[in-house]
Amino acid sequence: MDFFQTLQTLLLASTPHEKIKGFNAFYTYYCNSNETVRHSHKQPIRFTAPSYASYCHMVPPQQVPRRKNLQSTEGQIALVHAVAHIEYSAIDLALDAAYRFQNLPQRFYDDWLEVADEEIRHFQMLETILHDLGSYYGDLSVHNALFEAQERTAHSLLHRMAVVPRYLEANGLDATPQIIEKLQRLPRHDRLTQIIEALRVIVDEEIDHVRKGDYWFGYACTLEEVSKACYFDIVKLYYPNTFQKPRHINVNGRKASGFTCNELKQLTQRHICD
Prior knowledge:
Order of helices and strands: HHHHHHHHHH
Low-confidence stretches: none
Radius of gyration: 19 Å
Structural class: mainly alpha
Helix content: 55-70%
Distance between the termini: 48 Å
Largest sheet: none
Shape: globular
Number of domains: 1
């Protein structure tokens, strides 16, 4: 099996069923074959549109349906659909990391295929909830912000690891517990409990995804002979205003995923740990 060609095929798969079925067969073979990755001399292609472009209706982020009333079915669908889209996009982000950056240690490919496998499981959990709510993935409009981050960082392992796992996914570690807290304040019923439990699984397992990104960000820093302090400068290249205001963060989750207390101080603009 051609490792990189198979990943390219998976990245181009236009429906969740096609992508997930193909990945499961590939990943089963990968885990059981004990083969090392054979690196290709072919340049990875640049994608001009996300794989879900023909499956979902894409709109600017500000036009994505808002989750106003989380006690209503419509509000819950909007919430679960939004998170499902993040998880589906994250499948491609993990696959693209393994596809795009060649000649790295075997552990790099092991790590990002494991992340893709877990993102698929997260997506399927949320898709099941959507079905229970009378909806499905693709029922609501979506944005392509994560795909844009993928393509804008395609030229650099250092930038990819800084921007995707250490910035975008780490932001999810901050945001998801706040959503869970909001849901916990609502009158409890089985459907709400199911959503909360799914979000808890996701935030717990995303810590390891960010930790993997932290490891490979450090590896890329060593390759390029730069300090990990370049993280903030790299992120500001893509999101110029992101660190201007103090922010609430998930201190324990961030520390468990590799952020230092000095980095957390820069993020929050206050001393929060030693």
